[in-house]
From TrEMBL:
It comes from the Eukaryota. Residues 87-115 are annotated as: Disordered. Residues 88-99 have a biased composition (Basic residues). This is Uncharacterized protein.
Length: 277
């Protein structure tokens, strides 16, 4: 939550529980308290998405449920918690390098493993970043906001791609998190066929030299293995990662028998075959 929100005046319970006491000079204080209550409501409407993101990142299932329950009868609140914060916050000048408000800087909402400014996250991005992801949180999100799993941040990354790009955890733990998402949703598309070339789960895992994670988009998402074989060594972002590693071409070529989707059965070029030798 924004630092200004953290400094908000917090009325004590007595301000509400004792409101109807005969001795309380309500008329004298009504204007003062109306302003405070209006301020609290305005915070929720303006920062609803931030609150949902924080709840998803923290695994606070109760708050997530209550937000969606309240949103069912309050269109303004629903619009607030599902807001596309790429539009409501400062616009980025380019992927992964814009100046962002304090709420999105590393460390403001639990930190980020990405160096530099943090792209605007959605609740789905935050849920995957949780230290201990909760399958129930995924289920609540998919029931109430199914399209959010494909929402892209200003870095043009879906939650899956963003998680793979940023996560420095053990690869087995990464796969466990991704499989939990698959089980919770039932039919998440991890193929990357609707993503831009440099922003697919498979290519991101390959660029990060995460050999085990490369299996996930292929076996669980029918990803196109040829989208990462025989491509340029340097990405559009200017980094040079997995293609300097011997293990990645070997690992990718070992996955060729798993790429059984009819959409991706292609004849490899001589360059690709040499890459696999």
């Amino acid at each position: 939550m924004h630092s200004n929100y953290q400094r908000a005046v917090r009325p004590r319970g007595a301000a509400i529980t004792g409101w109807c006491e005969p001795s309380r000079p309500r008329a004298k204080n009504s204007v003062e308290w109306e302003a405070i209550f209006d301020f609290l409501i305005q915070i929720l409407l303006e920062a609803g998405n931030d609150i949902l993101c924080l709840a998803a990142r923290s695994g606070c299932l109760m708050l997530i449920k209550r937000l969606f329950e309240a949103a069912k009868v309050d269109p303004d609140l629903k619009a607030a918690i599902m807001a596309d914060n790429r539009k409501t916050k400062s616009a980025a000048k380019g992927p992964r390098r814009s100046r962002l408000p304090p709420v999105y800087r590393p460390g403001s909402l639990g930190g980020s493993r990405r160096r530099g400014p943090l792209p605007m996250p959605a609740a789905w991005h935050r849920a995957l970043w949780a230290r201990y992801p909760d399958a129930q949180v995924f289920r609540i999100l998919i029931q109430n906001w199914p399209e959010g799993v494909y929402l892209k941040n200003v870095g043009n990354d879906t939650p899956l791609v963003d998680f793979i790009f940023n996560c420095n955890e053990d690869e087995d733990e990464v796969i466990e998190h991704l499989q939990m998402l698959i089980v919770s949703m039932g039919n998440v598309d991890a193929s990357g066929k609707d993503d831009e070339a440099w922003h697919t789960p498979l290519r991101t895992a390959a660029r990060q030299a995460k050999a085990k994670v490369c299996r996930f988009p292929i076996t669980d998402g029918s990803a196109d293995i040829y989208s990462v074989l025989g491509v340029d060594q340097v990405s559009s972002a200017g980094d040079q990662k997995a293609w300097d590693e011997v293990k990645m071409p070997e690992e990718l070529c070992s996955l060729l028998p798993l790429a059984v989707s009819a959409d991706y059965i292609l004849v490899p070029t001589c360059f690709e075959l040499n890459y696999c030798i």
